[in-house]
Amino acid sequence: xxxxxxxxxxxxxxEIDGNFGIEALKIQERPSLPLNPYQVRLKVHAASLNxxxxxxxxxxxxxxxxxxxIPLSDGAGEIIEIGEQVSRVKVGDRVAAxxxxxxxxxxxxxxYGKSAMGGALNGMLADQVVLHEDGVIRIPSEMxxxxxxxxxxxxxxxxNALIASGGIKPGDTVLTMGxxxxxxxxxxxxxxxxxxxxxxSSSDEKLERAKKLGAHETINxxxxxxxxxxxxxxxxxxxxxxxxxxxxxxxxxxxxKSVIVGGRISLIGVLTGGGEVNPMPMLMKNxxxxxxxxxxxxxxxxMLTAMTLHKSKPIIDRVFGFDExxxxxxxxxxxxxxxxxxxxxx
Length: 346
Description:
The protein is an alpha/beta fold. The protein has helices spanning about 50-60, 145-150, 150-165, 180-190, 205-215, 225-235, 250-260, 280-285, 295-310, 325-335, and strands at about 5, 10-15, 25-30, 40-50, 75-80, 95, 130, 135-140, 175, 195-200, 215-220, 240-245, 260-265, 290, 315-320, 340-345. The protein has 2 domains: about 5-150 and about 315-345, Medium-chain alcohol dehydrogenases, catalytic domain (Quinone Oxidoreductase, Chain A, domain 1), CATH 3.90.180; about 165-290, 3-Layer(aba) Sandwich (Rossmann fold), CATH 3.40.50.720. Strands 1, 4, 5, 6, 7, 8, 15 and 16 form an 8-stranded mixed sheet that branches. Strand 10 (about 195-200), helix 5 and strand 11 (about 215-220) form a beta-alpha-beta unit.
């Protein structure tokens, strides 16, 4: 017997049915299914967009997906029903979903990829979702559902890159690219740890906003197309200790020139697409290049502790309604956003 409030008979969600593209997204209604003993039912209040979600919806991420697929990896809401064996959470708890439902602690493992929300599994673009009790995490009372919905992918990725795996120290110089979700979380976490922050963008207006958030130096990469030279100039020709690399192959060569001897590059994004990269600078400069693919529940927990202590709040660009999902995706596609794009669901 499950513990519950009254649940709705139908669940409304957006789905990818095998046809790709923003305009191909469809709202569907499906029956609300019963829980197994270890599952919870979550009333979703907000979800947020990541670039990965846009690629999945457009068919540029993977074509072999479990259709019909509910997209979006990130969301937050309220537990409205629990299975009879659930012990981690209770009805009424405010929670966010984990990006990897099965990566709870320790290093990443191949099988965890099969538990990625909004890709291998149905995601959060629905008014209700059913998850295993291990796949949710309580959110701070002072954080809104909209704010919490931005954390599972972008924030945990930045935390893993700089803190859990990166081990940045006070006085380190961190270079991060752009003013999307991961980059602004990286800025915040670097600031928490006493690092010097250099941030790039093609917009002077966005760079000014980044300065107000704590960036020490800014580089407009349209005005300074060889922006790695500017990084070296700003660091006394040494380079940054840590580069948060969001461009992929199109910018990695410049990142390799921007990083200090013995420094680290966290390879996260593929915004500029694929391509060939000369590995020689990695060898000659003794650079550690590490791929970062989100992180574990344990990392998420540590991150929330730090954010609560420092009263840190996510930067939200704009909140769209549930019936404005296509407009939200087009806004992300335009690159005009500063911070996270959120969908308010209920």
